[in-house]
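Attaching the record inline, Q. Sequence:
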Amino acid sequence: MGGAYQANFFLYQTEDVRSEYRIEEYNWAFAAERADSAGVDVISSSLGYFQFDDPNMDYTYQNLDGKTTVITQAARKAVERGIAVINSAGNEGGLEWKYIIAPADAEGVLATGAVDESEIKNRF
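Structure, as predicted:
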């Protein structure tokens, strides 16, 4: 028994750890659609996108407007369908890029961050 007693879980792997390309955004969108058709109430994911192996695919800060990226559009659609979407804000605080990343930019997505044991904003 745990905090989610009698909960059912659907696990979808959308990330390809060998590379970083926009196909992973589409994978997430397909998984969200499948989760919706299965009656899922909550999507929790810890991933995000702004930079890819092919620099031509990279997003700019202006692209993170809550409307542009594929994964953001999919997350917004899931929220509109009544699914609670929780996603990490990103781990870029210690890097040159210091902004949240898609899909955390979507309206209605609960973006989560982290602090260390000293309550200092987590950088990685």
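Helices lie at 23-37, 70-80. The chain has a mean pLDDT of 90.

More tomorrow.
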